[in-house]
Amino acid sequence: MLFKLSHCSFSYHSRLVLDDISLGINAGETVAIVGQSGVGKSTLLNLLAAQHSDNIAYCTQDRQLISGLNCYNNIYLGKLAQFGAIKNLLNMLRPNVQALEEISAIAEQLHIADKLQASVGKLSGGQQQRVAVARAFYQRRPIFLGDEPVANLDSVRAQQVLQAILQRHQTQVIALHDRDLALRYFDRIIGLQQGKIVLDAATADVTQQDLQQLYL
Questions:
Q1: pLDDT tens digits along 116-162
Q2: Quick check: 57 pLDDT over 90?
Q3: Phi, then psi, of 98 in degrees rounded to 5
Q4: Residue 49: which of 173, 151, 166, 190 has the closest Cα?
Q5: Separation CA 148–CA 30 (nearest Å)
Q6: Domains and CATH numbers, the chain
Q7: Which of 43, 48, 57, 182 is nearest to 132 (CA)?
C-alpha cells in the first residue's frame, strides 16, 4: 500500500481539523478528495505528502511561485536540488538547452509556451496555476498530489490540465471542488465532512446526489 493513515487526528490552533481518519491508497489509483472549504482536504494532502516526499510532485494551493522570476525559471525550480549551484546560476543567465527543451514541451502541453519569458507576477491566476503544474511535471515523479490545481481554470482548460496530470503520473490524489470533474476523471472519490471521511467509494458507485450531501 502506497499511503496509509490509521486513526489519525490533527488539530491546528486547538481546532480539530481531521478526526480519526483511516485511509489506504494503492499505487496506480486516481483519487479525488471532495468537500467544502475548511473540512481538512489540504491537511489530509499534507499528511500524505509526508509519507513519500521523494516521490511526490505536490501542487499546493498557494502555488509557491516566485513572482519576480519568469515562468521558465519558476518551472526550473522543480529540479533545483538535483543540480549543482554553478549549473543553477548559469541557467539563470542563459537557459540550459536540455532544460529549455523539456520545459518548453511541458509548457506547450499546458498552453503556456508563450509565457515562458513573462514574469509570473504579471500572469493571471489560471496561468500561474498552470506554471505550478508545469513545475510538478518537470520533477518527473510518479505521484502527483494537487490541492485545487485547476480551481482558477475554465472548464475546457481544467479538463486539459487534468488529462495531462493523469498521463504523466502513475498515482494521483487531488482535492477538487468541481464535482463533475471528480466523477469524470477519477476512479475513486473520498468525501470529507467536518474533518471525517464520510464517503470513500469507487466513482462508478457515486452519484451527483451523493456528492451534493457533502455540501449541505
A1: 999 999 999 999 999 999 999 999 999 999 999 999 999 999 999 99
A2: yes
A3: -65, -45
A4: 173
A5: 15
A6: 3-215 (3.40.50.300)
A7: 57
